Amino acid sequence: MTALFSSVALQWWLRRLWDWGGMLAGWLSGLLALYGMMPAEMQATLLAILGGRWGDVSLAAAGGFIVWGLTQWRSYIATVKPQIVTEDGRQAELRELPRGTANAVQEFARTAMLGRGDTLIGKLLKLKLGQGR
Question: What is each CA distance from 120 to 54, 123, 124, 125, 129, in whole angstroms?
């Protein structure tokens, strides 16, 4: 029994258990929160679909559920996509900008990150390490 618990493979699995358990708990809580934000009609539709009761789901309810899912996906994509707006107010991709303008945008973003100052975590770490006063 001692050999089993001192096994490197078992210790690796135990360490992964915490990682995977945390990720699984995060995904489940996110899905439960998303489910809680749905209107009651949409929750009933989702439960009918997951339960295999397709006969209970009307075409309008299924269509509404699909449209809701697509709007959530487009909202996520719009959130994580880099946003660049030209002088005339048009949204543009970095590759669409002229070469000099694209370089200026990249340089502006790089210098903004460098000059933003210390974050609270950075300041606390400096205090802990005795580097800041």
Answer: 52, 5, 6, 9, 14
Mean pLDDT within 25-41: 89
- Crossing angle of helices 59-80 and 40-50, in 10° steps, is 100
Residue 122, CA distances (Å) to 9, 66, 67, 127 in order: 36, 44, 43, 9
Residue 120's pLDDT band (cuts 50, 70, 90): confident
Q: Are 45 and 57 in contact (CB under 8 A)?
A: yes
| Stretch 92-120: mean pLDDT | 64
The CA distances from residue 24 to 31, 37, 46, in Å, are 11, 20, 21
Q: Could you identify the residue written with the tokens 């990249």?
A: 106
Q: C-alpha distances in angstroms, 43 versus 24, 30, 58, 59, 98?
A: 22, 15, 14, 15, 48
